[in-house]
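Folds abound. A case:
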Amino acid sequence: MVDSLERVTAEVVECRKCPRLVEWRERVAVEKRAAFRDETYWSRPVPGFGDPNATLLIVGLAPAAHGGNRTGRMFTGDRSGDWLFGALFSAGFANQPTSENRDDGLRLIGAYISACVRCAPPANRPTPTERDTCLPYLVRELHLLNHVKVIVCLGKFAYDGVAQVLGLKRRPAFGHGVEVAASEGRTVLCSFHPSQQNTFTGKLTRPMFEAVFARAREVA
């Protein structure tokens, strides 16, 4: 059977392979955060999304419990997403700088967003086994996104996952701005994750973050 991004999406949404993650994502959707108590949470694995002809692939860690797990779209409806979509807009990879829900008109231009793990994990910490169970979806996406020239890894967890997918056996240690030549003419760029832990402390600033996507634009 011929694979497709639509097929990957359908399989991701129905996945129940990791019992700990299934229990957590569904419990969060019932307990909710007070600010979203009147909303119906997505409460399922979150598929990748974007331009099927993307030259840029952004890989994150996993959906946020009250972000993607609520909205059903990666980085949509949380603080990390505010930084990501703002940077993508500045670099010309998105048609608007913010995203609050799946139907808000956001369109990625030459970019696709995915993650190593598709379910919101407790404390934002998937286990290595959960990552390895989920990575085949990323493998398939990367195979289908055959125009990708640049992969931006948001955080060390994403960098480790992408290295595993690409077979990068010898690579530099993770660090903001690290750039790695990969097979098939692809380039891997590393960035600190735009989590509140990094942005509130100043470990990651907007100029630092935007510079990564400006560089991605140059390479792509």
In short: The mean pLDDT is 97.
